[in-house]
Fold these 2 entries.
Entry 1:
Amino acid sequence: MTFLPILLFASAFIVPPPPTGADDLTVQVVPSWTKLTSSAQSMRGRTFPMEGNAQARWRCPGTMELPVKFADNPIVRASWDINCDIDISDRAGVEFDFWCGDISQFSQLRFYMRSGSGWYATWPFAPDKEREWCRIRIAKSDLNKEGKCLGFDKISAIRISGWRNGTRDTVIGLANLSYTDAVAKKLTKAELAERDRKTLEWVKTLPSASGEHRAFWCHSAFGLGGAPDKGWDEAIRSLKDNGFNAIYVNLAWSGCAYYKSDVLPPSPQMAGKGDQLEQCKAACRKYGVELHAWKMCWVTGGTNRSDGAVAAEAKRRGWLQMNDKGAELPHALCPSNPEVLDREIEAFVELAKKGVDGIHFDRVRHSGTSTCFCRGCRERFERKIGKTVASWPADALPGGALAKEWADFRAESVTALVREVARRVRKEAPGVKISAAVFNSPCSDREGIGQDWTLWCREGWLDRVCPMNYTVSPLLLKSMVEAQKAAVGNVQLVPGLGISLWPRGVDRVRTAAEQIMVVRNAGLDGFIFFNHNVWNVRHLEALHQGPLK
Ligand SMILES: [Zn+2]
């Protein structure tokens, strides 16, 4: 009798039984993980779905099934916290078996471990295959800290998160969470040389293609680092020599420009180095490479924080963003502030008239769901909906009484910039291309970060859109690109590939070549890599002997 309910319940599971565990002696299942079973006692206080998500189920002891509810459910991510004690202070990392019913529903999968009030976070991971158990390995050395972590010996929970890319329900499975010492070891010089030789041999067999938009983002306004011998001429020549035909250069923020501007103050970094737009443009003309001027939106300056005076002025004028706790963000400007909007528009229009081939929006979004709750945003929101908000900001936060109206307001405040810049540039600088770097999920970016980029495509305000598809997984890249293709209409889709952002140890030439082939096989005619710098230049020569001939 006691087995009957379990048998009946078992038939409802979708995830198949997992592998029985690794034979490798360096791998050991985490003891507290094996205690997780379907009994109520085991579940209580252990598994915490994020708001809007369904409770985890236990396929068998130590194996969980996580029902992903994306159909008719506005959640941006499927996420669960599972309490279990982990100590990897003497181990190289953890590994686990992962099963995914439908990878196309996710734009990103991530694994975290909680320690104290902070989290150890991984680079997004992806399985090699769908509907098969795949082993995922997380090296301790690849973890980043978010918040205040107490140490690798005091991990109290894991978190598994999948960001929405689709509108269908699916299921993921998680099993055999294990300690491991079998992480990828650093290759010796000789091993590395052998790997690179084999990669080059394979890369040379790949076909090239004509008529592609082959581009790089360049985060530095000074080309390859700004050293006297590595300025714009070398930066552009290295692209041209290796089969690229466009560069997108970060020449402006909201509080500074790296060229002579009547709208934005000059960057203090420019002193003694001259107008970077003119220098870059001269090199682009010389080598026949398109120049697209990339401007950050609603953020005063770069990570160098040389924008103190500008940030102080923004604070004085009441332009700073405020989060839901009432704290001002020192470098971020309020997207719904009309004075800020005017300046952003004028800066883009001025840029478009400087003889560039295109202008490029970046960070054209809100910081997250927790901004902007400044006084001005509240006033403008209340004016838009025609009533006062009873409980601020609670009513506007996810799950609040006015969450939908607030999401519309946030998205519209961002859209207003793109729409007006497009209207002005089409008239005042016709022929200049308009593009944007965007997050990668057509169905959740509007709600999550107020970035309604599929609308900008449908309305024809953009000529080209570059979703930041920063994954190493060809499977996930393919699924992202397919969802994006369906959303962009006639606008050129140019996927952003994160060569600088891939984790340590990744064979960058092989991965770049694989991803170029994924993009081509999807029927697309362009891609853009992040980021053009001295470290990546050496990979380009190898690609030039294969898919970029
Ligand atoms: Zn605001």
Note: The chain has two domains: 27-180, 194-543.
Entry 2:
Amino acid sequence: MSRNDTLDVAIVGGGICGLTTALALERRGIEPRLYEAATEYRPVGAGILLHTNAMLVFDRLGLADRIRDAGVELTGGEIRSPTGTLLKRLDLAGVERAAFGHGYVAIHRAALQRLLLDALATEVRTDTTCTAVERTDPPVAVFADGTTIEPDVLVGADGIDSTVREAVVPGVDRRRLESVVYRAVVPVELPPADRSRGFQCWGVGTYTGGARIDADRVYWFGTAPEPLTPESASPAAKLAAIRDHYRGYPEPIPGIVDALEPGDVFRSELADLPRLERWQMDRVVLAGDAAHALLPFGGQGAAQGIEDAIVLAHALATHDDSTAALAAYEAERKDRADRVHDEARRMGWLATIRSTTGARLRNLGVRLFPERVFDRFRRRRAAATPLPEDGSGA
Ligand SMILES: Cc1cc2nc3c(=O)[nH]c(=O)nc-3n(C[C@H](O)[C@H](O)[C@H](O)COP(=O)(O)OP(=O)(O)OC[C@H]3O[C@@H](n4cnc5c(N)ncnc54)[C@H](O)[C@@H]3O)c2cc1C
């Protein structure tokens, strides 16, 4: 399976990237150790859209069918203006599923997390916060309870505010976009046409949309130029402001925000990282948001971390020298992730334009932009998904 099945790999961070990395290593016969700061896995009240490249990696890891069954396979997508004008229709079934066998899947984050945890033999050591990486060769990581570990390889999959990153590229902080995002999972019946497609509406300073994520729930998101209410406002006042802000958008948005209950919605700031100059130092390496946190507008953040996982596991399983393995991983992944990162930033700028004229021009541009160019772009991204042989001969 692997020439390195005795390699001691420690992963810090049990989010989507850390869990997928652990699974990819297991598939290669390497049993990692996985450390997670949270005291337990709590259901996150949001959905996630897994693009074709993410699903192709999960297919290679033997999880795609379970993910598809637990979520909703989208056949298409629509982008509308705030007055309801159709700007673009995306044919996800005809373009990606027909060509690659997998396409976009919308799923509850908690369901994805559960599937990953169930697929893993590795036990996640929760309530274990890494506080520092003292050395990179060999790696020495320190935890909040004073214990230290000295694995052969240390993977930092600890998110945008990564602690492990300090040992690789010190002093890199998140960059805030001046917008916030509201998210919720809502039990609501969608009109039949929207039951298997994603919907988005591009407004002035506001970008909102969502998709059905299972039999009776819908994932909704909406950005706003700034928080609609102070943090101290009551849940009822917060909800009233949200309904007010999004009610004027085309259906199904008003139907969804009307079905929200106080406390359903949570707000996050939007931020990414600048491009890092490197992802690895000696035998310490970064993956997922720790390496390349993206703005969420292209829907590629987790997908890029999922690609990292399979490439990193392949590199570690096929190189005798760990430092060379990490260099090979970075060489294969960094350019692609950097490109996607820059696209997400451009998309973020476009999606949150605050001037009415700017937003009108943007929407006209989206409307006139040929659909076949969008199709070609998505097809190319899916076709370039890194899918190393799994080494099992299966
Ligand atoms: C509004 C929004 C919508 C999005 N939508 C999509 C989408 O539709 N599709 C998509 O592909 N992506 C999407 N993303 C991006 C996606 O959510 C992230 O890219 C992805 O969750 C990152 O996974 P990760 O495992 O790298 O990091 P994280 O999810 O941040 O996980 C890091 C883990 O490390 C743990 N941790 C942190 N520090 C330590 C420490 N010191 N010691 C131990 N453990 C630690 C944390 O508790 C956490 O569990 C979206 C993001 C946002 C903000």
Note: The chain has twelve helices and 19 strands.
